[in-house]
Amino acid sequence: MAIKTVGVVGGGLMGSGIAQTAAQAGYDVLLAEVNQELLDRGMRRVHGAWEMLSGKGRITADQAAEYRGRIRGTLELNEFADRDLVIEAIVENLDAKRALFRTLDEIVPAGRILASNTSSLPIIEMAAVTQRQDRVAGLHFFNPAPVMKLVEIVRTILTSEETVSELREFATTLGKTPVVAKDTAGFIVNFLLIPYMLSAIRMYENGLATMRDIDSGMKLGCGYPMGPFELLDYVGLDTTLYAAEQIYKENPDPANAPPTLLRRMVQAGRYGKKNGKGFYNLDETSGAR
Ligand code: CAA
Ligand code: NAD
């Protein structure tokens, strides 16, 4: 079936970017959050991006108004009853995601696709709580979603060919390049990226170099757009920790084990750019640099 209406659950870093991307591509988008304050924040992020693009002359004021007209926020998941595709982008926690999939399965008509933007969790565990296991898949965007060109389509042992092909078509209409991955922790990109970021933390923890020098090394020596610590702050330290735990659980290689400093940062409530407190703005006196 042709996808026309899209629901996004979770208006954080990723959900707001996915909702923005879908609205820009012409879809009718409904964005859900848990409370009004977070919903307003997510919607502000989307509207702010269009203001920025219009200020730079990348889109016209008419286009910005047209995009704004295609997206609406809600606190009521019952409104998702008319959605052709729902993309879950809530916190990286399996219990929370399973509870949400159970609810969505009751609201969204049978046969419509339920997708998860999880970084690492098994999609089959979300599919298992639904009555439509062939219509559940991973649809993994990269941060920032409106800019990064890749989307991983994660196919479980029960996802149908039809679902994969509809998601491939959907990703293409967003201007993304889809790749298909098996339902294993980290899929393609995070299986490689997470141990790289963890290695950088271990290198710093062991006093081998400063954070800035490690970042300069990878940017200037390898041409990466961000160094590993900039990227950790950008992705979110909580999300990175939860994804690392999952990848380690399935692949108990020491390279996948979350370093103590990453745990301490999350325990200290330092989540990175999303709450303005990450590796890069640790108190000068903490000695973390
Ligand atoms: N909507 C549309 N366009 C946007 C935008 C938005 N919300 N935000 C930025 N842009 C556009 C800007 O307008 C700009 O376009 P122009 O060049 O045409 O003006 C372009 O994107 C680049 O933006 P900036 O100039 O602000 O910033 P930059 O050049 O420093 O690039 C960056 C920023 C794209 C984030 C770059 O630093 C980068 O690629 N970093 C690495 C990101 C990365 O590795 N992401 C993957 C993380 S891992 C992940 O996501 C998976 C997971 O599960 C954890
Ligand atoms: P985030 O913390 O910025 O946002 C999560 C949002 O979900 C929060 O605003 C929270 O209020 C909301 N939420 C939680 N439970 C909800 C519910 N039941 N209903 C509606 N909203 C709910 O997190 P994020 O970085 O956007 O990550 C979201 C998902 O995307 C995670 O699974 C993460 O692993 C994945 N992901 C993250 C990145 C990244 O770089 N941050 C990249 C790709 C995928």
Structure characterization notes:
There is one protein chain. By secondary structure, this protein is an alpha/beta fold. The protein has two domains: 5-182, Rossmann fold (3-Layer(aba) Sandwich), CATH 3.40.50; 190-267, N-(1-d-carboxylethyl)-l-norvaline Dehydrogenase, domain 2 (Orthogonal Bundle). The protein contains eleven helices and eight strands. It has an eight-stranded mixed beta sheet with strand order 3-2-1-4-5-6-7-8, with helices on both faces. Helix 1 (13-24) crosses helix 2, helix 2 (36-55) runs antiparallel to helix 3 (61-69) and helix 7 packs across helix 10. The chain is globular and about 55 Å long. The model is unreliable at 283-289 (pLDDT under 50). Residues 9-15, 32-34, 38, 89-92, 96, 100, 117-119, 141-143, 235-236, 239, 243, 274 line the site of nicotinamide-adenine-dinucleotide.
Summarize the structure.
This protein is an alpha/beta fold and about 290 residues long. It is built from 11 helices and 8 strands.
Keywords:
11 helices, alpha/beta, eight-stranded mixed sheet, Rossmann fold, 2 domains, binds nicotinamide-adenine-dinucleotide, N-(1-d-carboxylethyl)-l-norvaline Dehydrogenase, domain 2, 289 residues, globular, 46% helix, 14% strand, 8 strands, binds acetoacetyl-coenzyme A
Give the domain tally. 2
What's the Cα radius of gyration?
Answer: 19 Å
Bound ligands = acetoacetyl-coenzyme A, nicotinamide-adenine-dinucleotide
| Biggest sheet features | 8 strands, mixed
Order of helices and strands, N to C?
Answer: EHEHHEEHEHEEHEHHHHH
Intertermini distance: 53 Å
Please name the CATH architecture of the largest domain.
3-Layer(aba) Sandwich
Question: What is the total tally of β strands?
Answer: 8
Q: Low-confidence runs (pLDDT<50, min 5 residues)?
A: 283-289
Q: What is the CATH H-level superfamily of the largest domain? A: NAD(P)-binding Rossmann-like Domain
Helix content: 40-55%
The CATH topology name of the largest domain reads Rossmann fold
What's the CATH class of the largest domain, please?
A: Alpha Beta
Shape: globular
Helix run count: 11
Strand neighbour order, sheet with most strands: 3-2-1-4-5-6-7-8
